[in-house]
Fold this protein.
Amino acid sequence: MGFRSEEEVSAPRGRVAPDDLPPSYFLSAGYDGKQEKAFLRLYEPESRQVYLWYDNTSHLSYAVSKETPEQLRGNRRLMDYPGFLTLERVEKFDAIADEPVMVTKVVATNPLAIGGGAGGGIRNIIGETWESRIRYYQNYIYDRGLIPGMPYRVEAGNLVPVEYELPEDIQAEMQEAFAKEDPEFRDNMMEWARLLQCPVPVMRRVAVDIEVYTSVANRLPNPDEAIEPITAVSFAASDGLRRVILLNETGEAAALPVIEGAEVAFYEDERSLLAEVFRVLDEYPVVLTFNGDNFDLRYLKNRAQNLAYSNDEIPITLGRRFAYLRNGLHIDLYRFFMNNAIRVYAFGNRYRENTLDAVSGGVTGRKKLEVGAINDLTFEELARYCLNDADITYGLTSFNDDLAMKLMVIMSRISKQTMEDLTRMGVSRWILALMEWEHRQRGWLIPNAQDILLAKGGTTTTAMIKGKKYKGAIVQDPKPGVHFGVTVLDFASLYPSAIRNWNLSYETLLCSHEDCKTNMVPGTSHWVCTHKRGMTSLIIGSLKDLRVLRYKPLAKDPSLTPEERTYYNVVQAALKVFLNASYGVFGAESFPLYCPPLAESTAAVGRYAMTRAIEESTRLGIDVLYGDTDSVFLAHPTQEQVDRLTAWTDRELGIDLDIDKEYRYAIFSKRKKNYLGVFADGSVDIKGLTGKKRHIPPLLSNAFMELTTILGGVETPGEMPEAKKEIQVLVESVYAKLKDRDFDLNEIAFRVMLGRKLSAYETNPQHVKAAKMLRDQGTPIDMGDIIRYVITKNGVKPVQMAANRDVDINKYVDHLESMFEQLLDALDMDFDTMVGRPKQTSLGKFFGA
DNA sequence: AGCTATGGCCGGGCAC
DNA sequence: GTGCCCGGCCAT
């Protein structure tokens, strides 16, 4: 820690907001080290520019201490910094003790003097503190109640919120819809709705992509050294700009490539090429990249420095992990789309790998151009390739009516983080930022992790899985076999509902009131407060109600325009991301509000709801085929039975049980989390079955897909025998293909991702073995790489090093068998019989030997 | 400096 | 051989 040089924080430049800036959206905040002032970036949709607005405050960084100012003044280290700190006595509310508390606010009058602004420096100096982990600009936002992504206006040099009020008809409609709600929840929901309904501006933006010459084939250029020249840069922007600039240093009379709908230009020296790049970057309020934090912007900055550009001339500032622009926002889409919560809950797992090609292909259907080695491309090929990358990068934000941009703005409003932070941080930081903001609004002390742990203790249940901290969800044993007419019901937002209905929050669990101690959470030895509404319960509960009662229905409302439905769909998706993460973070040690009893109680209420719903189903005479966490699979229930069950859960548990899907028929094996369901239209829903997994060789997974297609065609039990014949033919043909070695090596390659660096493996699994062979042969290998290998008689070989004759066919037949078996078992079919092998039982082996 | 959780299946590797 | 753990991938 200690002093941080001013050079590290480069002054922003660009347009300073006039004193009468019309309504503009607050997008980003920071600290200008040169002026020692806080600044906000405000996006003004009419001029389509970002303006800087300066605030005279410099009190951005502070901590709160239990010690009195007198005690703190006795701290020798503190007195080393007399000019930078002020001490102020303030009252806060200690939610854990449920009483007010006087504390000392230690303010760093120059945040840069204190550990780079993170506040860690203050903690180091004065010891035990609260609230010192907050990034300095967040203090600024929290203390003023500013909401990123919302409109503000500059009037006579002051920042004034533009109060967006819900239109009266919407207000009335919501008041009516939420009439049954507790008023505390209703008020909260109205405030959230105000943020969520406020129009999202269309943001002018440009995507940029660079190509670099590589002298060594297969080696990625090093952005920190930036030794090799930048050969092409492309832009694709929301205002229609599509431009490629190419480096043609030799000055040879090469023909300028012609690309329809795009400008192409040659630059004879790299320095002027860079000048042009910086000019374009400076023109846009938002710049998009795919991996610009680690590559494109880093390379541009360092390359420019190598070419003797001064820092002031380069509009890029590099942090240790991120790259920022001095005149706008840099959004690295790689980071945003790689965020697990975004991938799974916002984009339905439509991509699984961390490449532009995979993400773009999965989300928008647009792929990278297939080309050979970059160095060997003609100018035209290089230009088209590079431009396509910029095009599809921009496409990630423009598809579906700017869905991704809207998602970012809405989530930034919910989490109270700027878009730059939101897109770079994980879901636990989003929820933390939201919780911290709420604490400040209420004048609550933000507790340290130890404070919560000390007051609330650990867990009291025992996990099913060794090494886990507490018991999680229930998974019912499935009833194996083929079942026609299966209805799947699931609890809408089970865990958020549990948090809401049971008033779960770190301060309400195990509260200090004697009379609450009988109010037990089922299945635990924890009690919960009966006097006060918990903060987590209120926030998560309101968001959940808003999603279930308002935004999910609106997203499907046929009376709305497609644009309106799309918008509401974005809102409900954003809420879903927060809700789904809200339970898990409290069980994560890394989360600063870690509260084991809270996570444990949430899961316990979930088990309670699930168990009681299954009991009630049985009581109603419905056969429960399977259940997992929050869903029950029912064998041909009548409409009346379903109605009675859902009415029961609503009445008894206060949780909505909805019809999730209906299968014409479903196949269960004896394994949990493994089944196949066929919808009325013949489409197939596959869960957990090996044949669907990413690492399975295409030859096997394609065969599996064919199997499911055959099953998808079955409409009645009477058609099953015919399908079985088709399956017989399929199995024989795949078996023959293997036996005849009639395949390309890529078809039978397992594709497994390296979860860590090679050196970090303690064991030697197959994909690691193959990776090591590749490495020894000279291929660079890193975490996240997907290793393709085939199984050979002596172990494994990477595809690149194997030959067809090396392949151990029997191993592949075994894989084929185990994969098919999961479904064939339930169909009373036997793989060995089908391929004419003797049955591989231990008894058979014994007698056959 | 990466971090929401637990439950479950599968194959391979290793110790006994 | 059996049992256990690891690593990857998935369900919720």
